[in-house]
Amino acid sequence: MHHRRAKSTRVAGSWLEREELGKLLQQARSRDPLMWLAMLVSYWHGLRASECEDLRWGDLNFESRTINIRRLKGSLQSHQRLREHPAPLWNELGGFEALREMMGEPEPEEFVFHLSRFEFYHRMRRFGGLCGLDLKKCTPHALKHSLAHHLLLANVPISAVQKILGHSSLTSTLKYLTYDEVSAERLLTEALGAKL
């Protein structure tokens, strides 16, 4: 009797918890500030590695503090705010301003990161290994998963998560919103309180 192999699916829990992401960003920031910024941008805007790779200086508007997100795979293009944060580790706008100052006045068509998907993947895994993180979680796509997971845990409506991730279909967004038992139990406790 011949058995068909199950289709490969993304692993539930292939996101980084906020603390894990912080460790990863800190490791990158101390060793490779450009990679830190690429990871931070990918997280804040739910970018694929190839979308981050294609980011150009002309996609950034420092006056309006926005970024033009050009998505692939049929996802929706959008303009989003560059994220400002009091903690430098999470401050995307500050990172871009520092990089622009260091580079002078880059041309609008110039790539911001000069980083291939292959390099992104391998550098991210290297920093994850230095942090002692599960390397299955240390992939560029896990940054998008992480954003979706963090937004859901913060009770952001699913339609807003869809818009932030640039999905044209809600079905695409639902694929990212999986729970492990611990997360599901925590949500149940928060929703119903300890009165059960």
Topology overview:
Blueprint: H1 18-31, H2 33-45, H3 49-53, E1 60-61, E2 66-69, E3 78-81, H4 92-103, H5 117-131, H6 140-153, H7 158-165, H8 170-174, H9 181-192
Antiparallel strand pairs: 1-2, 2-3
Would you kindly provide a written description of the structure presented here, covering whatever features stand out?
The chain has a single domain, classed as Intergrase catalytic core (hpI Integrase, Chain A, Orthogonal Bundle), CATH 1.10.443.10. 50% of the residues lie in helices and 5% in strands. It has nine helices and three strands, in the order αααβββαααααα. A hairpin with a 4-residue loop joins strand 1 and strand 2. Helix 2 crosses helix 4. It is globular and about 55 Å long.
How big a fraction of the residues is strand? 5-15%
Category by helix and strand content: mainly alpha
Strand order within the widest beta sheet: 1-2-3
Quantity of strands, as a count = 3
Question: Cα distance, first to last residue?
Answer: 49 Å
Count up the domains: 1
User: What is the CATH-assigned architecture?
Assistant: Orthogonal Bundle
Quick one: CATH superfamily?
A: Intergrase catalytic core
The pLDDT mean sits at: 85
